[in-house]
Every structure is written in C-alpha cells, then in structure tokens.
Amino acid sequence: MVGLVLVSHSRPLAEAAVDLIRRTVHPNLSIACSGGIGDKREELGTDAVEIQEAVTSVYSEEGVLVLMDMGSAILSAETAKDFLDFQQQEKIVLSSAPLVEGGIAAAVQAQLGSPISDVAKAARESLLPKQDHVQDSPVEDQGPSIVTPSGSEILELTVENEHGLHLRPAATLIKTLAGFQGEVLIENLTAGRGPVAAKSLVDVTRLQIRQGDSVRFSISSPDPQPLIDSIRLLVANQFGESPQQATASAKLTAEPKKSGTFGVSRGIAIGHPAFFASIPAEIPTYKVQTDSEIASEISRLHLALDASTEDFDARVSRLRSSLQPIDLEVLGAQRMILRDPTILQEVEQKIRKDRLNSAAAWHQTLARHIADQERADDPYFRARAADLREVERIALDHMIETKEDSPSPEKPFTDGQILVCDELTPSLAEELTRLGIFGVIELQGGTTSHGAILARALNLPAIGGAQSYEQKIRTAGTVAIDGAEGSLWIDPPPDLLARLTRLQQLEHSQLEEALQQSEQPAVTSDGVPILVAANAGSAQDISNAHKYGAESVGLFRSEFLFQHFNHEPDEEEQLNIYRRAFGSDKKVLPITVRLLDVGADKPLKFLRSPKEANPFLGVRGIRLLFANPGFLRTHLRALLRLAESVPLKLLVPMITDVSEILDLKRLLDELAHELRNQALPCHWPIPLGAMIETPAAALLIDQLIPHIDFLSIGTNDLTQYLLCAERGSPALSAFADPLHPAVMRVCEQVIRKSRENGVEASVCGEAASDPDAIPILLGLGLREFSVTTAAIPATKSLIRKLSAGWISDQLASRITSFSAASDVRKFSRSLTA
After folding, report:
1. pLDDT confidence of 414, banded at 50, 70, 90?
2. Contacting residues for 351 by C-beta, under 8 A, at least 6 apart
3. Which of 423, 289, 297 is nearest to 360 (CA)?
4. Are the beta carbons of 267 and 461 closer than 8 angstroms?
5. pLDDT of residue 586
6. What is the pLDDT of residue 246?
7. What residues pair up with 760 in beta bridges, in sequence order?
8. For the purposes of burial, counting CB atoms within 10 Å of the CB of 415, is it exposed (0-12), middle (13-18) or buried (19 or more)?
9. Collapsing DSSP states into helix, strand and coil, what is residue 115?
10. Is the pLDDT of residue 316 over 90?
11. Distance (Å, rounded) from C-alpha 649 to C-alpha 598?
C-alpha cells in the first residue's frame, strides 16, 4: 500500500488531519504526520529530520506521498527526501495538493491498492468536486512544473488569432520550431498557465491561449535570433491562418444554439431515426511483470500507433481531392497527437512503473487529457476533446484487435434513415453513403473531428449536440435536420415537413444542375475553349473526375498508390495498382501520369532518399529515380504496358537539366524494345512532358521545348523555389503566394514560349483553382487548368464568365507594374467586379 505523510507547521493541525482521514477512510491506513518544532513540538515550524522519520515509518515499495501546507514545509520535505538513499528517493512523491481534501482523496486510492501515480493524481484533483459545487475555477493538472533556464531569451507577444492558439496554429508552432536548434518554453501570462515545452501539441493546447492573451516565449539556444525571428513572424502572420480560414473556423465552431444542437455538415436530411449501438472497447486488465513483458507492451504500443497512422493517412489520401485546405490542416494536427511526446512519455511510464498493459495505459492517459480538455473555459478548446477521443479510439482498435469493420445498428439499416450515434467515427462516415443513410445526428460530436470532416467531404448532412433529445428521438417516427444551421425537428407537423421536403429537393436540384453544367465544356464569354482537367491520386479521385465533369486527368500523383508498400513493388504489382486505380467500368479519361515523385516531404518506405540537411534541395523527383535504376526500369516498363490500354501521357518531376529528359527518352526507347522482344503489349512513343517547378526548368524552357510534347507548371514548388520560402513553413506564408509578381512573370514567359512553339501548357498547382489566379493565368494565355476534382464545377463556372481577350489586353500593360501578390489579387478582383 502507498504510504501517506502530512506535513504542517502546526502539530495539532497535522495530528487532527490524520485523525480525520483515518475516521473517514480506514483506521488502519499507512499514514504518519510531522509538524511543529521545539521540545514538545508546540512552536510553529517544520523539521526535516522528523519528516524523514515519518516517511521511513510508512515506507513501502509502492511509494510514499507527502503533502505539505506551505512555505518552509516544502523546503523541509525536499531536504528530508534528500536524506534518504537514492532508491528510496525514487519512490517519494511530493504533492502540492491540500492537506485535508488531498489527504482524504489520496487515502481512498491508497486503501484500494492503487499505484502511487493514481494516488497522487487523486490528491491533485481533490478540490474539483468542491469547485464544481461552488462554481469555482478548477486548478488544472498541468503536469510537472518547468523552470525557465537562466540566460534564456524572453519574448512576450500577443496572440491575435480569432480562436487563439488552438489545434492548427499550435501544430504550426511546434512543426516550425522543430527545425531549429534549442528549446522554447511557452507560457500563457494572461491566464497564468505554463510554462511548457513547445514540443507537445497536448501541452500547448492545454495552455488555452485565446485571442488577445499575452504569451511569453523563453528561448534557450546557442543562436537564439533565428528562433526569435521565426516566432515573431509566426505571431505576426497568425500562425499561417488566413482570414478565410478564420472565417471557416468561426462557422464551424459557433456556440450551440439554445437548443444545444449545432451544424456539422451542411444539407437537409429527412428520415426515420436509426440508432447505432456504440459498444465501448473492452480494455484488458492484465498487468505486466517482467522486463521482457514491459518491452513487449511498449513494442505493441508503437506498432499500434504505426498502424493507426497508416490508417489515418490512407483515409485522407482516398478523399484528398474532396477535402478543403483547412480540413487537411486540421487532420494534420490530429495526426500529430498519435506521436505527441507528452502522451507517449506518460503512457510508457504507466507501462514501466504501474505495470499496466499498453491498451490500459493508453486509455488511462487519454482519458485524463480528455477530461482536462472538457473542463476548458473556452467552448472552442472544450471541443478539442473530440480530437483526443478519436485518437484514443483509433489506436485502441489496433491494440486490442477489435477493429470497427462496419456499423452495428440496433436494428438493420434501411434506405432513407438518419443515423443517430454518440460521435461520428471516420470508418462509420465512409460506410454510411454505401448504406443509403441520408444524414447523421450526433448526440455529442464536434465540428472538426475526423468523422465530421469526412461527412462534409462526402456531402452527408449532419448535426451534433443532440444528447438532451435522445429519448424523444427514440420514440420519433420522423426526424429532420439542417446541417448548415444545426437545426433538429422531431416529428415535424405536415406543413413544416412539406416545406423542408421542398428545400431538400431544391438543394438536390441545384447540386444536380451544377454537376450537369460541369459536364459541359468551359468556354470563355468571348468563345475561347478552355480544358479543365483533374488532379488525382486514387481510384476515388478518378471516379470523382468523371462525376464532376473533368475532360482529362491533368496530373495523376503516383506516390499515393505506392505509400503502403513496405517492399519495392515489382512490375506486375505496379501495373495492377494502376489498372485498379484507373478502372474499366467507364470510358477511360486521358490521363497524365507523373512519374513517382518522392523525397523531401514525401518519403516512401522502400525508396528512401539519403539523409540531407535540406531535402527540398536534395535527391528527389527524377534525381531519386535515376539514383534507383532498378526500380526506375520496372516503373517505366509498367507504365509502357499500361499505355497499351490507357490513353496515357508521362510527366517528369523536378526537371532541372535538358539531359534528364534526353536520358529518360533513351531509357524509354530501350525498355520499349525489351518489352516487344518479350511479346508483352506496350505502347511507345507516347507524349512526354516536363514539370516546370524549378527556376532552372523555367529559365531553360527554350532548350526543353524541342524535346517535350507538353509541360505542366507546378506553382506550389515553383513558388517556394523562386521566393526561397518553404511551402511547409507557416512563418513564411506571406512569401508563399503563387500570385507573387515574380512567379507570375515566370509563368508568363513559360506560357508564351509554349504557345509560340505549339506545345501544350497547363498549371497543376493550387493556383489553378484559385479564383484570383484563374483570370490572371487566362490573361497570360493559359488554356488548360488541372484542379482538385471538387473544384472543377466552380472553376468551369468562373471561366465561362470571363473574356480571355479583354483580360489579356488589360494585363499586358500592367504585368510589369505589380510589386506584391496583393497588387495582383486586387487587380484580378477588379476584373470580375
């Protein structure tokens, strides 16, 4: 049993507290006290030697928890701990918990045989019931105290983000600072929380930094100035959150209505309620004893987290073309929680010291952090508990091998139903469209969970916060929801039901009309035909390209098909994954396949690039393929064989030299000859193009054009290389705008040269679907745009409203006068005003 020691300046107070605890909990508790000084301990004060004796009297291998009142009692307790031998010191925990409430709460846990971590936690949280009752602010457990090192550089700034330092900007801060040498502590001065190391997403978000809060950064580094500059830039740029993102966040995180419900995914749905039987995971209770068992559980933990990360990435890849940038950033931040250092350290400690199995340790750790988040003052921060619940569930599925394969409704699902569940999980969201579910009512839920994001991507109407209506929903014949407004109607009267049905039909007809218009060609108002193609990376993307009216696939990113291979796939494996992705049930669109483009921020398990100081300027793209000649040969052979049945074009990434195109052409000639000698069907020559995404390729465009059949401008990489601004660095977001005049001038030269030589040119970066960029690119002479599938209808609609000739005339006299991206955007908006 864990021993308890109470230390007070007053001997009578210490003895009375021990008496109260014994009477309240159990007379045979292992508890001792120390207090007072002088011969009869009648004077106020504390004695380190007596505290040591009290600790020794209740000492056990389970440990001893020491509670102190204040001031010198703390110093005396620390000195007493130092008197003990090293092995004993490791078992002693000094707690800041209150003597009475903390002592009683700790005694209850000790009597139950709980480990010292749980005894100490109970003591720390002992005031919460009383604080809840009198509506006092809870004292949060923020983990071990961190002391700011002497000599640190101090930076105090005000956070202006609309929702403070929530999940996305916190993730941005951590990722940015990880690239520097040194350590940064962060503290919410306004709320008095922290400091914590800026390494853990959980720790940083628990600071609850709101808009207008004063934040102190303490920087310890041999060269602190780059860190200081980076932090200043992050804060000034609101951690990379654009005004559009802030607006989107506001829409998603508005306070629930008086009814308590809130919108999750827009759209009206009407149907019979169908409850989903949510069966909580059964957490194993076995303990681990030996060192080998501990090592095995830690290995199980990390294997489960690896598998969870792969599941997470695979789901995002399948739906990437339908996700908005803000959703991708939210998912990226959620992904970080799976490897959060604070959480991992706590879980591993529970396995090593408390002897818990990996699933129990994971569950207990996440449950504590979820409870902390749910107690947050700000509703936006409280909503982040949903992210933690989701991460807990995803990993537990792998740890206890009870993966959620399909929904388990209380009764069989039928078409036209509204699913009612506690919280929409990602796997459940993906299943619902297949099952004919019209919409979702979450009894709890949140707006930025993985499941909510996928519901929006799948156009599945959903609301949350309906817990108080559960019983009424259970007895209802019909329910209706409006996912945009967060409204819920239970058994609506006939006139209201008729009105909602008309609104639902109007929504469907508007969507159908938009899709039908999207199938029509995009022709400008002055009669110039523009080809709108799709960016894709999966079979789902190809399906969406057909659905949204793409005229071709202008960029197929091969890397998404290869990311789950642990071994180097051979020729047949590669051929098969391409065939499965492109399908055969519909007319196959012309497809431009980019050769496998990995390296830098896109590593693959079987084709790793060497460790480099700056991988974005290293062995990536075509360089990495040439560095792996065996794989390159099988890769090209598979694509040549694919071209026999698919209208295929090949696009070469990261070109910086004409010789790379020439060498690749010679290799393709050789491989085509091999395949024909082996009587394997193939097709060569086929159109071969170059990605114009490096300054070198843009400057050498006149030398490249004689050797290529088409080109595609990758504005994402081109922008980062031209402006020396890594696109993954939010601190440089102001320098990562593809409408920067330097980028536009380079695009103008490349487009002009391609048109003069009769070579097709397209833009496949994010600029292709940017409403501000489309008129500018059109005016520069671009006639092919390749965009995410979800952006096809809007892109075509905008193009039909524009006059290419008029814009070209207006732009000709202005293109050299722009000095900033904001000038270009302002000019573009004047064209469509």
Report:
1. low
2. 288, 294, 297, 298, 301, 357, 358, 361
3. 297
4. yes
5. 58
6. 44
7. 710
8. exposed
9. coil
10. no
11. 19
Which position has the token pair 């393929």?
625
H helix or E strand, kind and range, residue 634 = helix 629-642
pLDDT of residue 527: 95
- For residue 388, what pLDDT is reported? 81
Strand pairing class (462-464; 31-35): unpaired
Which carries the bigger pLDDT value, residue 548 or residue 429? 548
Rounded Cα distance between 218 and 198, Å, is 10
Active site residue 724: no
Is residue 234 within 8 A of residue 730, CB to CB? The reply is yes
Helices (H), 58-193: 72-83, 86-89, 99-111, 116-124, 128-134, 167-177
Q: Which of 33, 421, 747, 764 is catalytic?
A: 764
- Given the residues 9, 166, 363, 450, the one annotated as active site: 450
Is the sign of the CA dihedral 695, 698, 699, 704 positive or negative?
A: positive
Angle 504-506-511 from CA coordinates, rounded to 5° = 100
Q: Which amino acid is at 660?
A: E
Nearest to 389 by CA among 478, 460, 464, 457: 464
List pLDDT tens digits, range 466-509: 888 888 998 888 999 998 888 899 999 999 999 999 988 888 88
764 flagged as catalytic: yes
How do residues 817-832 score in pLDDT, each as one tens digit?
898 888 998 999 888 7
272: amino acid identity, one letter: H
Positive or negative torsion for Cα 719, 725, 728, 730? negative
Ordered DSSP codes for 30-63: -EEEEE-BSTTS-BS---HHHHHHHHHHT--TT-
Strand 487-490: give its sheet, edge to edge: 262-265, 462-464, 437-442, 417-421, 268-275, 479-482, 487-490
Kindly state the tokens that stand for 154: 């101090």
In sign, the C-alpha dihedral spanning 241, 242, 245, 246 is: positive
For position 243, what pLDDT does the model report? 46
Distance CA 823, CA 802 (A): 20
Asked if residue 778 lies in contact with residue 747, where contact means CB atoms within 8 angstroms, the answer is no
On whether the CB atoms of residues 712 and 555 are closer than 8 A, the answer is yes
Which tens digit of pLDDT belongs to each residue from 145-184?
A: 565 666 688 889 898 887 788 777 887 888 788 778 888 9
DSSP string, 636-693: HHHHHHHTTTS-EEEEE-S---HHHHHHHHHHHHHHHHHHHHTT-----S--EEEEE-
Helix, strand or coil, per DSSP, at residue 272: strand
Q: What is the distance between the alpha carbons of residues 741 and 816, in angstroms, rounded to a whole number?
A: 8
**Tokens for 659?**
């010789």
Q: Tell me which of 479 and 279 has the higher pLDDT.
A: 479
Distance of alpha carbon 389 from alpha carbon 640, whole angstroms: 47
> Is residue 612 scored above 70 in pLDDT?
no
* Backbone φ/ψ region at 38: left (φ over 0), alpha (ψ -120 to 50), beta: left
Mean pLDDT for the stretch of residues 416-440 = 76
Q: Is the dihedral of CA 88, 91, 94, 97 positive or negative?
A: negative
- Note the helical H segments in 385-467: 385-399, 426-432, 450-457
**356: Cβ contacts below 8 Å, ≥ 6 apart:** 287, 288, 350, 364
What residues contact 34, with CB distance under 8 A and at least 6 apart? 5, 6, 7, 8, 14, 46, 47, 50, 51, 53, 54
Please name the residues in contact with 42: beta carbons below 8 A apart, sequence gap of 6 or more.
11, 36
Tokens read off for 300:
């199980």
771: exposed, middle or buried (Cβ count in 10 Å: 0-12, 13-18, 19+): middle
Sequence-distant (6+) residues with CB within 8 A of 578 are 561, 593, 638, 639, 642, 646
CA 737 to chain centre: 22
Closest CA to 578 of 597, 563, 558: 558
